[in-house]
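Inputs:
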Amino acid sequence: MNIHQKSKEISAEEISKTLDKFGSGPPYHEFQTRASRRRGIIDDNMVDPLSAKLGEFDINDPANMNGNIEGQVESNNENLYVPAVTKDILESEWEALFGTGNYKNELRNLALTGRLRDCRRFRGVCWRIFLDCLPDDVNQWLGTMRESRSKYCNLKSMFLVDPYSSRSDKENVQVFNPLSQESDSPWSQYFEDKKLNDLILQDLDRLFPGMHYFQSKKIKDILLHILFCYARMNPNVGYKQGMHEVLAPLIFVLEYDSEVFQFLENSDNEVMKDLINPEFLECDAFCLFEHLMDIIEPWYTQGELPAVSQKQAFDASGVPFMATQPTSPPTAIIRKLNKIQESMLKKYDAVLYSHLREMKIEPQLYGLRWIRLLYGREFTTMEDILTLWDGLFADGTSLDFVDYIYLSLICNKRRKLLSSDHFGCLTILMKTPYCRRDAKEVVLEAKYMRDTKLDPTRKSRGIYQAREETKSSVTIEFPSQEAIQSKISSGLQNVLRGARQTPSKKGPELNSRNTTQQKKSDKTKERVGEVKKRPVELKVNNKSAPSSHMFPNDPDDDDLFMTSARSRTSSATFLSKLSSKVRHPTRTDLTTLQQDHERLQERVSHFKAEVDKLQSISIYCGTKMDSYINILQDQMTRDEKCMDVVYLSLAGLKQVGDRDIYVIRQSLNFIYSVAQLIILSAAPE
Amino acid sequence: MDQNQNCHKNNEFLFKVLIIGDVAVGKSSIMKRFAENVFDRKYGSTIGVDFKTKKLKLGGKAVKLQIWDTAGHERFRSITSAFYRGAHGIVLVYDVTRMETFTNIPKWLQELDLQDYNCTVKILFGNKSDLSSERDVPRETAFKYADSNNMFLFETSAKTGNSVNEAFEHLVSRMLVAFHEAESTATKPILSGDLSTCILSEQEKIIAGSGCSC
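Outputs:
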C-alpha cells in the first residue's frame, strides 16, 4: 500500500509538469483529479471525464461525488496510473497488445473479463479491431485506414455543400435560386440539410450533460459532421435520436488514444502513429461509427403505423405481450426485446418472467432505451460504459452480447422486481441510471450467462450457486422444528465465521470465488443426494399436472423453492453483516450508532416485507400443490383399477405439501426474529 | 368498462396522461416540473419513453396521475400499443419560440386519430413562454386554433413553472368530468363521446377550490 501511495504522489507532480508542457486535454485532466482526490483534495470544479456523472446527475452534488470516489477507488485500485508516458513505453505496450500472432483472441479475453480498461491507451484501436474496421493482418492496417479516411473525406465534400460556392449551374437562374422549386437546385438541398442540421444540434446541445467535454465547439462539430454525413449517406435510416449518444463515446475513446500522439514524434512505428493521429480523429470516428451502425441500425428503424386500432388488438388477444403483434409486423427492436423477455428470460428465470408477465410489463417500455443506446445511460460513469462496450464489441460483430447484458441487468434486480407491483416494476426498470454496479461485474455475469447457454440445469452453479446451497437446507429431511432451527443457526454461525475471516466485501477474482463455491456446492450436493426423493416426486407431480400459468411449459422449474431459498441466503449474509456490526460497537460515538440503528431498522422493515412476500409465495405454492393433488385424485377415482400404492403416495404428498409450507414459514419466522433480536441488542442505550 | 374499474380504486382516481409533441419543445421538462417541481436545463433527449407519477387532490378527490413522456422523434411507431393504451388525457406541447413545432400540432392530432384515441381529453401547452423576446407563435393565433379544435390552451414555462400546475389541474378536472359522464351513461365506454359540452363554470369552481398535495 505504501508503494502505491508513493506512486500517487509522483503521479500528481508528474502530471502537473505534463500539463504545463502540453496543455490540459481531457485525459490528463483526469489523472490530475484522480491524484488530487487520493490526496484528499477534491476540487468541485474539476470533473474526471471518465467518472463524470452522466445524464441528469448534478456533478457538483457532494453526495454523488462521494459515492463516486468510493466506487472509483475500488474499481481502479489495480491500475493506478503509471505516470511517465514515453515513446518506449507506448511502443512496448503496442507490441504487447498487437504484436503476437494471436492478438485478437487475447484482446477478446481481456475485454470480456473487464480488463481492457487497464491497458486502455489503445482502446480505440482495439474497438476498431473488434468491429472489423481493421483487417486481421497488422500489415494491412495502414492501407485500410487510408482507404476509409479518403472515403469519408469524399463524403464530406459531397454532402457538406455550400450553395454559395456551388458554381455548376450558376448561369441557370431557374435552378440556381434560393426560391427555386426545382428539386435539383443546390438551394432546395441546402434547406433540407439545414433542417437535418438543426435536428441533430437539438440533441447535441443536451448530450451527456454531466460532461463539459462534449459541449466544446470542436467536439460538437465533429459529432455534427459525422451524424450528418451518416444520415445523408443512409437516407432510409436518416438521423434518429440516440445515435448521437452511440457516437459520443467512440469519439471520446479515439481522442483519448490520440492524446499520446505527441510523444511519438521519433517513433519508427508508423502504424501506431498513423492510427492514433489526432488529425484523422473525425475520419476514424466515422469509420467506427459506420461499422457499429451497420450492426445496430435495425434497432433504429421505425415501423409503419398499424392499420387496425391497437386497443382492439389488445382486447382481442388477451395476451399482454402479444398485444403488439397482430396488427402490423413489429419492428426489429420490438422483435428483439420480445425475444429476450419471452424466450431467454423465461428460460433463465421463469419466476421473474411470469411475474413481469403478470404485471403486464412490456419490454419496450424500458428496453428500447437500454438497447438503442447500448446501455449508455444505465451506468453512472463513462468508464463503466466503456468497459461494458469493450465486452460488447469483443464478443462478436453480431452484438448478441447485448441480450445477455440485458438478462444480467434484469436478473440482478429480481428480488426488488418480484416484490413490486406494476408501477413499482416500471419505476425500477425505467430509472436512470439503472445500474449502480461496476460494469466489469455485469460483463462477467453476462458472459457467464452466455457461456452456460442459458442451460437451466447449470444456472444454479456459479453466480447463482447460492440458490442451490440453501435450497438443499430447505429440502433436507424435515423432521422436527428444533432440528431445523439448529440447522439454520449452525448455518448462520458458519456464515458469521466466514464474514469475520474475510472482512473485505469486494470479492476477489472470480476464479477463486468459483472454487470456494464449488467446494460448498459439492458439500451440499451430498446432502441433496440423501433426500433427493421428495423433490423428484414433486417434479413428477408437476409434469403430470396441467401446466399452470406459474410454471409455463417448464417441467424443470422449481424456481419457486429457489426464490425462497435464495433470499434466505441473502438474509443470512445480511444477518452476518448485522452481527459483525454488533460485535464491534464504538460506544464512544453514539450518534453514528444511532444512525446505524436507524439504517438497520429500515433494512429490517424491508426484510420483513420480503419475508411476507415469501410467505405468500409458500402459501401459493401449497395451494397449487393441493389443486394438483385434487386433480390427480379425481382422475384416479374415475379409474376402475384402484391402486392402493398411488393413494398412499398421494397421501404422503399431501403431508409433504403441508409440511413444506410449515417448514418454510417456520424458518422464515425464525430468521426474522433473529434479525429483530440483533437489532434490539444493537440499539444505542 | 374495464378501464372504469381501473381508474377508480379505493376512492382514488388513476389517470394516465401522455405528453406528445415535437423534438425539444420541453416535454420532459414539463413532466419534471409538474411531478417534482424542478427544472433541469440539462435533460438528455428522451429515448423511447419515460414516466413519472404524481398525486394530487382536486375538489376533494384524490387523483393519481401517471404521466408518460415520449420521445419527440418517436411518433408512436416503435412503442405502439404498450405506450398509449388506455390513455385518459393527452398533453400536446409546442414551443412558442419555434413556429414549426406549432404547425406540426395537426400532424400529431392526425396520428392520434389513427390510433383511435381521438376521444380522450386533449389539452394544448405552448411551452417556453418565459422566452418572450424570442416568441414566434402569436398568442392570438394559438388560442384561435385551440378554440376551433375544442382544446384548451395554456402558455406554460417549465423553466419558471408558470401555469404548469394550473394546466394539469385543468386537465384533471376535465378528465374527472369525462369520467363521471361516462359513468352516468354506463353503456358508453369511459371517456368517449363529445367532450365539448364540458361545463366551464363547474371546472373553474373545482380549480378554485383545489390545491396540489403531494
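Remarks. The two ends of chain B are 29 Å apart (CA to CA). The beta strands of chain B are 8-9, 12-21, 49-58, 61-70, 89-95, 121-127, 152-155.
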